[in-house]
Hints:
- The complex is a heterodimer of chains A (about 325) and B (about 375).
- With about 325 residues, chain A is an alpha+beta fold.
- In chain A, about 55% of the residues lie in helices and about 10% in strands.
- Chain A is globular.
- In chain B, strand 2 and strand 3 (about 150-160) form a beta hairpin.
- By secondary structure, chain B is α+β, with helices and mostly antiparallel strands.
Amino acid sequence: MIDFEFSDEQRALRDxxxxxxxxxxxxxxxxxxxxxxxxxxxxxxxxxVGLLGIMIPEEHGGAGGDEVDAVLVLExxxxxxxxxxxxxxxxxxxxxxxxxxxxxxxxxxxxxASGDAVAxxxxxxxxxxxxxxxxxxxxLIDTSGARLLTxxxxxxxxVRSQDxxxxxxxxxxxxxxxxxxxxxxxxxxAAIAATxxxxxxxxxxxxxxxxxxxxxxxxxxxxxxxxxxxxxxxHAAIEDARPAAWYAAYAFARDLPEASKAANVAKVAASRAxxxxxxxxxQCHGGIGFTxxxxxxxxxxxxxxxxxxxxxxxxxxxxxxxxxxxRDA
Amino acid sequence: xxxxxxxxxxxxxxxxxxxxxxxxPRDLAPPGTREGFEQHRVWERALFDAGFAGISxxxxxxxxxxxxxxxxxFEEEYLLADGPERINVVGEKLMGRxxxxxxxxxxRARWLPRILRAEDxxxxxxSEPEAGSxxxxxxxxxxxxxxxxxxxxxxxxxxYGAFADWIFVLARTDLNAERxxxxxxxxxxxxxxxxxxxxxMQLDGHAGFAEVFFTSVRVPVAQTIGEINDGWSVAxxxxxxxxxxxxxxxxxxxxxxxxxxxxxRARDVWDDPSVRDAVGALAxxxxxxxxxxxxxxxxxxxGESIGDDASVTKLLxxxxxxxxxxxxxxxxxxxxxxxxxxxxxxxxxxxxWYARAATxxxxxxxxxxxxxxxxxxxxxx
Lengths: 329, 381
């Protein structure tokens, strides 16, 4: 039966995540991360309420959920601009569980669920891997599979990063254990798309609040149509993209053949919505949004950093054109 | 979350598809002519006789009494079968749903069964020369005389207005009340004395709509839908029904996209990366729109009303439609100037122009953006 809605439990989990992120990871906390100090208490807190094990089977210490359970939490992680490899760890754990053997699952999943291990995901073809130096395990994916790299297999070199709370590293690697994956890139792309939507929503929320408050010509700037229409279009773009992120999650959870295409759509749509939100948020904030002090930049930069993650929008559009071609032929 | 169809929905689709394949008429005259209009009426009646009119309407009004998802399945299959334009759409989607929400038992019993049998084809009397986007500025007046309204004024952009049997009219019934307050929603028989409908030729050469003049038309007060002077809230329901998703199957845009690729191939530009990039971008929007309609169906199925979110839906489909056809036109290159000898289908030109009207009818994009900004985002007026 067509029911494109979340369960009460799924929404409750989102609320738990939202409250925790707001309390444990406010902008002031994110700014300490910018100075290079990673405070592990946030990661511990995520583990304590079970957020790191959403998709990890119960036998390995997780909640035994799937992508649909995770997608709203990922959106919240973007909304909070969480300064941790949250989406990356969730995806890495899922890839190990689905494609690794029993030994691999047993050695990594309980440690990830408990917060003792941090994992990240990257692509062989990309020059950088986010959070590589913080990670105990890197899942480095290519077109047909992935290599699993532990700390001993990797030398990392920090890159000056646009978003210092999502630090990039160039890496030198040894061989690493090999996994064969079915849709290696798209699972990560779908998780990032959900995160991007959260970023877009936060940018819109901050901007709506600002234009209601900021007065020029004797009235709130949000009463001018030129401003209203910009923000209405951002809202429409976000509403356009959200069901795509949810559907990609559903398609992976059910292992549907169209999962990979769904991820392409989700990444293209979320990137479009986020880019528009990013542009209009800064424009509507005016000068104050361009300052170091204002927290808008936390989300402007996270948004910028996620655009190319696991495939630029252009890459995903090209893949969709190929899909259309195949359907048409 | 579950996005699969029930066995009943699947068997409904399996029953419908072959019936449409063998029953859809192929060469009706355009509905902008009297002859074509009556041919389309015969087809509407055939749909009813086969049990395919009013899929989600209650059985007592001649409907099939299925849920909203089956209604959407019908729209999708109808489109894929290339069914003719539905002249009954205003009655089935707008007046029917409005009566179900705001009509009295008597009004429903009187009009609803006649809608699906295509005995009454309805048209919509909202817009006026001075009341377009500013709909509350309606000037058409109904002055009460005993148990009758005396109706005077003019409506415009009335789809099927030249040949429809009935029209629902938003008219001013209290001249002293504030703009939105003094309006009533009145059903008018177009065969009444004093009703004069004149077709308007569109820029694509078709007569799709009309202007309708009312001169001292006598209308029973009992034909008022909802409370007297509360016509604005009734009209808002009607506008919501016009903007929400189920009437717009995403399948039409999937097909349009296939046509774009065919044009690109015929023009030998399909391997141009910029073309593939643009088509990939449109493909993503077609799919997100499909998913958006599933979300709307879920909400309707749960008994939620779509409310102001219908404005988002309208923005999404109208701008997608416009962008698909504008891109298709640009793909035609030098053939864009030709109405014959073109790699595009013969109907392409007509659909292109209609796509450019999509951001105007059913409330312009500017009005939808105002609604989103003020009522959803809460920005000050």
